[in-house]
Amino acid sequence: MCGRFGVGGIKFSQMVSNELSCDFIATENMDLRPTQAVSVVVNADGKLQQLDAKWGIKPDWAKKIIIYAQSETAAEKKTFKQAMASRRCLVPCLGWYEWRDEGGPRKQKYYFSHQEGRPIYMGGIWFPSEVPKVVTITTQPYEVCEPYHHRMPYLVSHDDARHWITGQGISEKQVPLRIIQAAIK
Question: What is its EC number (predicted)?
Fold first, then answer.
């Protein structure tokens, strides 16, 4: 589920800066993978600001890296509870990838992006350390995403950004998505 996503360069960074009213400069990476550097937006003294982090955590008890938490249970799970209460973030991206078995020798890759080419904001939580870590939040899929995967990123509209980060309720407005078949690399 959403083990890869794309982050744009200058134009993307400018759109995020304008939509969220904060300085944001992300390094372009259209195939961002777990453990790689990712720029997120956090609340710092009541203002939104960029935080550069690594995607994924590895608690002592875990056998592998954890890159996401389920929205339905994250606030109750010991690993995520404190971060859900006080360290929420937004993970701006251009889109994310899913793979679907269509009977061929390899799974087919699909790219999910905003219908209008705008940034998508995935809900996330962050963990302080020498290099901060981030985990993305997942949820039940929109109807349009259901044929591709049983989970999807928890998407936050830019209008709800501040509400998500501060732990307030957000609207249930769906982000309009475009799905395209992507080249397999």
Answer: 3.4.-.-
Domains of the chain: residue spans and CATH: 5-179 (3.90.1680.10)
Tell me how far apart the alpha carbons of residues 92 and 153 are, in angstroms, rounded to a whole number: 12
Q: How far apart are CA 119 and CA 125, in angstroms?
A: 18
Q: Cβ-count burial of 114 within 10 angstroms (0-12 exposed, 13-18 middle, 19+ buried)?
A: middle
3-state secondary structure of 160: helix
Q: What pLDDT, in 10s, does the model give residues 53-78? A: 999 999 999 999 999 999 999 999 99
Q: How many residues does the chain have?
A: 185
Name the pairing type of β-strands 29-32 and 5-7.
antiparallel
